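Q: Could you fold this chain for me?
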Amino acid sequence: MGAYQHKTNSGTLFSNDYKKTDRHPDHRGGGNIGGEAWDLAAWKKDDAISVQVSEPWVKGQQSRGESYNGRIAPYEPKDGEEENVPAYFGDVVVKDVTYQIRAWENEGQKGTYLSLRFYSDAEPQGERKESKAIPVDMDSIPF
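A: Sure. Below is the predicted structure, expressed as structure tokens.
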């Protein structure tokens, strides 16, 4: 069975069972941001969480390559917001594109984990196709 493939602009952070020092992340996981696979790491600091987005590690590689840092903090729901409200909200800049991060706490077999969604207005939405007008004979419309 291969590695889990995240949907575009989503990710997951799990508790780091291998944390031995304060330098090690509290959470580790992965995600897909802007159509590319990334490793994710997070450190809890007071109420906020520092998030690091890194190029995936390859066995035998000395370093991870590019990495980007962001921050998420507890989300304060607005009046009337009750459903599907994230636990955390923040942002990260990846390859010169700013992504909003929304994180939800979930319970799994091994405890609490974070589901992440990444949103960006600057992301290309694909080429817009020009619509072609279809000629219509107005006299043939029955009403």
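A (continued): Strands lie at 10-15, 27-33, 36-45, 48-54, 67-74, 88-94, 97-108, 111-119.
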